[in-house]
């Protein structure tokens, strides 16, 4: 019994870390995978390297992105996509409209 009481702070700390770190991270990973699976042609994306472009072709593991005024085509692995810009713009507009309503 005494040994269990000595280990209780460690057990509580492990549960705390699980709740604070691992659960939100798994939710973020699920959301990211869903975003990658829902990519479609003509979506505007930003890569992890900061390249912004429009998807012109989707393959199994890679996508082809058209970027810049010269319409340069770049083949990028799907995991290189950071976010979908149309979703970010929609969220920004919603936040701005919420702020206007509150004021």
Overall description:
- The chain has helices spanning 2-37, 85-102, and strands spanning 44-47, 52-58, 62-67, 72-77, 81-84.
- It contains 2 helices and 5 strands; from the N terminus they run αβββββα.
- It folds into 2 domains: 1-38; 40-103, SH3 type barrels.
- It has 103 residues and is α+β, with helices and mostly antiparallel strands.
- A hairpin with a 4-residue loop joins strand 1 and strand 2.
- Strands 4-3-2-1-5 form a 5-stranded antiparallel beta sheet.
- The mean pLDDT is 86.
List the helices and strands and how they pair.
Blueprint: H1 2-37, E1 44-47, E2 52-58, E3 62-67, E4 72-77, E5 81-84, H2 85-102
Antiparallel strand pairs: 1-2, 1-5, 2-3, 3-4
H-E string: HEEEEEH
Radius of gyration, in angstroms, nearest whole number:
21 Å
Total helices: the number is 2
CATH architecture group name of the largest domain: Roll
Query: Roughly how many Å apart are the termini?
Result: 58 Å
Largest sheet: 5 strands, antiparallel
Give the percentage of residues in beta strands.
Answer: 25-35%
CATH class of the largest domain, anyone? Answer: Mainly Beta
Quick structural gist:
The chain is α+β, with helices and mostly antiparallel strands. The protein is built from two helices and five strands, in the order αβββββα. It has a five-stranded antiparallel β-sheet.
Please name the defining characteristics of this protein:
alpha+beta, SH3 type barrels, 2 domains, five-stranded antiparallel β-sheet, about 100 residues, 2 helices
């Amino acid at each position: 019994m005494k040994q269990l009481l000595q280990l209780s702070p460690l057990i509580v700390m492990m549960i705390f870390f699980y709740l604070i770190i691992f659960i939100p991270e798994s939710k973020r990973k699920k959301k990211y995978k869903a975003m990658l699976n829902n990519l479609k042609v003509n979506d505007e994306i930003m890569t992890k390297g900061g390249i912004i472009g429009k998807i012109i072709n989707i393959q199994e593991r890679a996508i082809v992105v058209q970027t810049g005024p010269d319409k340069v085509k770049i083949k990028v692995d799907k995991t290189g996509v950071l976010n979908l810009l149309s979703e970010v713009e929609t969220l920004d507009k919603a936040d701005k409209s919420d702020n206007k309503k509150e004021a």
